[in-house]
């Protein structure tokens, strides 16, 4: 088992249930951007930063029976929920892993919507630009989202909490 799989399992041991593929992608990206030792490669995609590596690792963990994927049919879409299984927890106990405590970060992120996490992740993706240019970039690459100035300020505030 590779160390990156173990890191994801450790994440689920602290996160519990994660509702949505997009939300999972954004949470892991945000944690990585804030210095947590996740190593998935991300590229910019329609919904912000996306990692094919993360998708493949999740599929492998599900196939091994360590992570459970539940399909929930909503009124007009399907949502996937992920959680660690008992087998996964037992397997994880066999390994020592040098991971920082994720709970404070996970608690902040789990309570946010996937739409808001998409904004935060996209802002972090362009974090090397000056703050004003990040806002302009958001409005350019995500015009249909119609993010408000308040949402941008809330996202900057969350980023500050996560990085300090």
Topology at a glance:
Blueprint: H1 3-15, E1 18-19, H2 21-33, E2 43-45, E3 48-50, H3 52-63, E4 67-73, E5 78-84, H4 86-92, H5 103-110, H6 114-125, H7 131-141, H8 149-163
Antiparallel strand pairs: 1-5, 2-3, 4-5
Helix pairs in contact: 2-6, 6-8
Give a verbal description of the structure.
The protein is of the alpha+beta class and 164 residues long. It has one domain. The chain is 55% helix and 13% strand. It is built from eight helices and five strands. The strands form two sheets. The protein has a three-stranded antiparallel beta sheet. Strand 4 and strand 5 form a beta hairpin. Helix 2 packs parallel to helix 6 and helix 6 crosses helix 8. It is globular. 30% of the residues are buried. The mean pLDDT is 93.
Mean pLDDT: 93
The number of helical elements comes to 8
Strand order, sheet with most strands? 1-5-4
Order of helices and strands: HEHEEHEEHHHHH
The structure class reads: alpha+beta
* Coarse shape: globular
Q: How many distinct beta strands? A: 5
- Could you tell me how far the N terminus lies from the C terminus, measured between alpha carbons in angstroms? 33 Å
Rg, Å, rounded: 16 Å
Main sheet specs:
3 strands, antiparallel
How many structural domains are formed by the residues?
1
| Weakly predicted, low-confidence segments | none
Strand portion, in percent?
Answer: 5-15%
DSSP helix fraction: 55-70%
């Amino acid at each position: 088992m590779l160390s990156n799989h173990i890191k994801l399992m450790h994440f689920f041991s602290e996160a519990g249930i994660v509702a949505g593929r997009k939300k999972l992608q954004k949470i892991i990206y945000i944690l990585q951007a804030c210095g947590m030792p996740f190593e998935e490669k991300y590229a910019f995609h329609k919904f912000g930063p996306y990692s094919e590596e993360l998708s493949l690792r999740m599929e492998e963990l599900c196939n091994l029976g360590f992570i459970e994927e539940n399909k929930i049919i909503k009124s007009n879409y399907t949502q996937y929920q992920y959680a660690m299984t008992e087998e996964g927890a037992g397997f994880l106990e066999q390994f020592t892993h040098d991971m920082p405590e994720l709970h404070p970060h996970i608690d902040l992120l789990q309570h946010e919507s996937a739409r808001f996490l998409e904004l935060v992740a996209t802002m972090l993706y362009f974090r090397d630009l000056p703050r004003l240019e990040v806002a302009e970039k958001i409005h350019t690459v995500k015009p249909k989202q119609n993010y408000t100035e308040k949402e941008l300020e809330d996202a900057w505030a969350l980023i500050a909490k996560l990085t300090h």
